[in-house]
Design goal:
Number of helices: 18
Number of domains: 2
Structural class: alpha/beta
Radius of gyration: 42 Å
Strand content: 5-15%
Shape: globular
CATH class of the largest domain: Alpha Beta
CATH architecture of the largest domain: 3-Layer(aba) Sandwich
Oligomer: single chain
Number of strands: 13
Largest sheet: 6 strands, mixed
CATH topology of the largest domain: D-Maltodextrin-Binding Protein, domain 2
Distance between the termini: 160 Å
Helix content: 40-55%
Length: 453
């Protein structure tokens, strides 16, 4: 019995060990599937396995350096503030360019420019009284713009009033673009017209009407003259105003190439005789400048800048076109600033971009509306929105705008101020009845020709 139990125990132990070994054995590994290889054919070459190529990293280009442009001008007060706004707008629209403006006082302007040119500290761009431009061009420091104009259809030079655009052509090359302008027209005191028995709403349109009204309006007992004419010997006042009457009579101041006097002609004599006759007591008389503002003159020639100081005058006044002789036409004299760049600057393309912006029709409309300057472009003067603005805000500006088509510029010569001084000193003698118009014109002709040598 004991033996049987032992045998059973041994068998049980064997069965136990067998089951343990079976549980610990690894699972059967499946045999791999045999896949037949596809042999390449002649039409299907064996493709090489692509190899990942690590491309070298391209260096990041540095940001373009901002171009800085210096800009000199002599606009003051509100006009300077408006210009600064326009400059800041350009800078925001062109982040690669920074225009920085500097005000330069007009009184010292030529000394500042001449000193800067010699020291090569001149600005990149400048806006300057047009009559001073020829002096700077003569130094050789101003860049010609012909290539820029020829390659840039947007600038539309033909849209500028011809007398302004042509002024910038000196010795056959263009050196500037007009950016602001003004002119002179007739201003009359409506209150004094009423007092003299004249219709306050009807200004003269001819020379004869103007002199007749001036004679009727003058009041010697109260120190009132009919027409105020500038007769001071210094400055440019005599020349500046006489040129208007000369052009209206059909005359010219200098010849076509600005090398000789051209005013000693029948037209010149007619203009000087007319003014001198009025100043002899027939509508006017010599005196200090400023009579009109003090209500001691019924009429005068004044410029479009007058809205800055006449707007709140203690009397009613109106603006009309300069009267014309019976066989002539109205005329006017223009001033204003022109825009140019210097020749020694590095970034002419950027400078041109700013010049094109500032003289564009879009910017010019805003500039004229906000400052009171007159249009330098015909398209602005004819713009419906601009004309509506004038009619709604200051209708008296309209004669100035319309007068641009009849206006003239002074001669584009570096010797202009010497010429003007020589002319005025001789012409004044006729205005003061110290010489006849013929004598004064002959003497002025000789003096001007000497100044032009």
């Amino acid at each position: 019995m004991r033996r049987s139990l032992t045998l059973v125990s041994v068998l049980c132990l064997f069965v136990f060990l067998a089951s343990v070994l079976a549980g610990c054995a690894p699972a059967a590994t499946p045999e791999p599937q045999v896949v037949a290889e596809t042999q390449p054919t002649a039409e299907q070459p064996v493709a090489e396995q692509p190899t990942e190529v690590i491309q070298p990293t391209e260096p990041v280009a540095p940001a373009a350096e901002q171009v800085k442009l210096s800009f000199w001008h002599n606009w003051e007060g509100a006009n300077a503030d408006i210009m600064q706004e326009l400059i800041e707008r350009f800078n925001s629209q062109n982040p690669d360019i920074l225009v920085e403006a500097t005000f330069q006082p007009y009184a010292d302007i030529m000394t500042l420019y001449q000193t800067a040119i010699v020291a090569e500290t001149n600005p990149d761009i400048a806006a300057l009284d047009l009559v001073l431009l020829p002096q700077l061009v003569e130094t050789g420091a101003v860049a010609a713009l012909d290539d820029f104009v020829a390659n840039d259809a947007e600038v539309q030079v033909d849209d500028f009033y011809p007398m302004l655009a042509n002024f910038d052509i000196i010795n056959g090359m263009r050196y500037a673009l007009p950016v602001s302008t003004n002119n002179m027209q007739l201003i009359w005191n409506k209150d004094l017209f009423t007092k003299a028995g004249l219709d306050p709403e009807v200004p003269p349109t001819t020379w004869a009407e103007m002199q007749a009204m001036a004679e009727q309006c003058q009041d010697a007992d109260n120190g009132v003259v009919g027409f105020e004419y500038y007769t001071q010997p210094t400055g440019e006042g005599i020349t500046w105003q006489f040129q208007v009457w000369l052009w209206a009579a059909g005359g010219e101041f200098l010849n076509a190439d600005n090398t000789a006097a051209a005013f000693n002609t029948p037209a010149g004599e007619k203009a000087l005789a007319y003014v001198a006759d009025m100043l002899s007591g027939k509508g006017s008389q010599p005196g200090p400048w400023g009579l009109f503002g003090d209500q001691h003159a019924c009429m005068q020639l004044d410029g479009s800048w007058l809205f800055g100081y006449r707007k709140d005058a203690p009397f009613q006044w109106g603006i009309a076109a300069v009267p014309a002789p019976e066989d002539g036409t109205t005329a006017s004299n223009v001033g204003g600033e022109h825009l140019f760049m210097f020749d020694n600057i590095e970034n002419k393309e950027a400078a041109w971009k700013f010049m094109r912006y500032l003289t564009s029709a879009e910017v010019q409309i805003e500039w004229d509306q906000r400052t009171g300057f007159l249009p330098v472009r015909k398209s602005v003067a004819e713009n419906a929105d601009y004309l509506t603005w004038i009619n709604e805000t200051e209708p008296r500006m309209l004669p100035f705008v319309e007068g641009m088509q009849f206006a003239h510029t002074r001669p584009a010569t570096a010797k202009y101020f010497a010429v003007s001084d020589a002319f005025s000193r001789e012409i004044q003698k006729a205005l003061l009845n110290e010489a006849t118009p013929q004598e004064a014109l002959a003497a002025a002709e000789a003096a001007v020709n000497e100044a032009l040598k």
